[in-house]
Amino acid sequence: MKKEPYGKKRNKNIYVYNRFKGVDYAHAPANISPQRCVDGINMVRSEVGKVTKRTGFEYDSHVWKEKINGIHFLQKDDERVCLIHCGTRFYLNDRVIYSQAADSFSQAVQLKDSLYILDGKSFMVFDGSKISNVKDNPFVPLTCTGRSPKGGGKNWQQPNMLTDKRTEGFVSDGESTVYILSQRYISDDNVTVRIENDNGTQTDMTENHGFTVDRVAGTVTFETPPPLSKNTGKDNVYITYSKSTGADRNILDKCRVITVFGAGGKPDTLFLSGHPDYPGREWFSQRDNPRLFSVGNTDLAGSDNSPVIGYTVKNSSLFVHRKDNERGLNIIVRQCNGGDEKYFSYPVSDSLQGPSAVAADTFVNMANDALFLTEKGIYAITQKDTGQDHYTQLRSLFINRKLLANKALSKAVATAYNDFYVLAVGNEIFLLDTLQKSYEEDKEYSNYQYECYHWKIEPQVRLLFVQDGRLCFATEDGRIGRFYTDYDNPESFNDNGKAIKAVWQTGNFTGDMTHRNKNIFWLWVVCATALRTGVRVQAQIKGVWTDLFSDMTTGRFFQWSAIQWSKFTWSTDKTPKLMKRTVRIRNVDKTAFRLENSELNEPFGLYELGFEYTTGSYYR
User: Fold this and answer.
1) Backbone angles phi, psi at 589, to 5 degrees
2) Residues contacting 436, CB < 8 A, separation 6+
3) Which residue of 110, 264, 383, 520 has the fewest C-beta atoms within 10 A of its own C-beta?
4) Strands 165-170 and 142-147
5) Is 263 in contact with 344 (CB distance < 8 Å)?
6) Contact 316, 265 (CB under 8 A)
7) What span, in angstroms and rounded, lies between the C-alpha atoms of 226 and 210?
8) How far apart are CA 204 and CA 175, in angstroms?
9) What would the pLDDT profile of 312-335 be if each residue is shown by its tens digit?
């Protein structure tokens, strides 16, 4: 913004808006920065300091017959596989591959080359072609190793809560026929044996075919002694049997919250929570082994009075978001301890005070901030410049009043798209621009705020996701919409065939002398050119919005491949165009301006707004 102040030797004054940021719903129109707008609908940053009309969207031709509960992606080699959860079914390439899912929202994370999914009914894994329940193919842990036929050895992996089976490794002496297990009173499930031979082959044996089992004593008796292990201290006899762990192997099926975390922030361990009967409890897998949940790998996130809503991973810390803790410590911080290949722990190292998260699908890492939605706005977990301490800060000051007016925050969804944190609540979409930070004096407990933008679309958004570089959404009635990305194509500027109303409204202009009359007599707008574009300009005069002019021709340029005779022009100038008019705004103490484009298939880019005015007698 530039201005030339009123002076005795100069009757004409100039006021120019030429740097445009985002919306400001936090301050009164008389108090907002001239760089922001009071009401900016369906506009977005085109480059830092300039704004443009958002693109529209198109619907996929396929209409799903049931609610879309999840859209998940698995990256395998160079292919990104899309899995759609609709109703009680999962679809891969429009083909049903699983039909026993819960008809509710699902969450999924990728670990290695598989996708692990929770829907509140089952803990599932998708390998790129089929879905199965994790507990149906659990990892059988090696609980003992280096054990002699008479006992000893050392403990290795803990029993897996997903199965009663376990394996013990023995070093054969070539003479013993009786092998003593570490457990007595083993289960009635069949016992199996694998013997590794010196020539690299193995011999598999089943119970009563080469050996017998005494379940009470916990012994296995071979008909002939297993061969001597040629490698000193190396296991060559493996006995697999069952012994109850006392754990409920179905307990993970009811979890609804999932993430991946590990030592140094490496994503190698699954964390699960959100069980309705144990809302504050967490379970974590063994490192690099998502099918092994050791019986001791569980912890209580504070108390069961504070359910876990979701997770945020930032650097080497795992942040566990809890709902409405009685002391306001709604985020606990876990670090990874350990270092050998068999055991890691994740003790609580800190807790953060601040408002609790309200929606499970709003946790997104952006730039240096881990963002999430609360009842007081969009907050970030950030780190102090010195030291390792973390704390929470507000980032959505400029849209809070509009955002928080929507009471359905628990249904909000979010995603990262380019440099924007995109949040959808109902049919409204809010964007936080991480490229533009503002340091506000009236928010001393937040280092900065992000510039914000506000969109409105007709459908109610159920899910947000990004696919093939496009911002996409799923609606409540089973449709998938995709925003266009080609800003040079006029056909990108419609919402499934309907015109998009884009508005940019300034705050109040009072000049340097609020108590004197202002007379505005010349106004101009500089807009980006396009094949078809234009602007409608209004002014607020004594509280009433009045049309000043509309220019739907100056900003166009000619192109043979896109002729539209009703909006024809011979101009080939593609540089920003100046649209100017003589206007008549007399004897006002203040005014505001509204720039609008509501035409079908028309972009609208704003570069500058300015006017000339004089200051006169005292306002009455």
Assistant:
1) -85, -25
2) 21, 22, 45, 48, 450, 451
3) 264
4) parallel
5) yes
6) yes
7) 10
8) 19
9) 998 889 999 998 766 778 999 999
Length of the chain counted residue by residue: 620
Intervals of CATH 2.60.40 along the chain: 142-242
Task: Name the class of domain 2-56+500-618.
Answer: mainly beta
Q: Half-sphere exposure of 432 toward its Cβ, with a 13 Å CA cutoff?
A: 34
Pairwise CA distance, residues 498 & 59, whole Å: 12
> Residue by residue, what is the 3-state secondary structure of 48-116?
CCEEEECCCEEECCCCCCCCEEEEEEEEECCEEEEEEEECCEEEECCEEEECCCCCCCCEEEEECCEEE
The pair phi, psi for residue 409, each rounded to 5°, is -65, -25
Contact criterion met (CB below 8 Å) for 288 and 312: no
Q: Which CATH class is domain 142-242?
A: mainly beta
In this prediction the pTM is 0.92
On whether the CB atoms of residues 469 and 485 are closer than 8 A, the answer is: yes
CATH 2.60.120.260 maps onto the chain at 2-56+500-618
What's the one-letter identity of residue 512? D
Which of 12-16, 165-169, 564-568 is predicted least confidently? 564-568
Burial class (CB in 10 A: 0-12, 13-18, 19+), 391: middle
Give the pLDDT confidence of 195-251 residue by residue, as tens digits: 998 888 999 999 999 999 999 999 999 999 999 988 878 999 999 999 999 999 999
Compute the distance between CA of residue 350 and CA of residue 143 in angstroms, rounded to an integer. 33
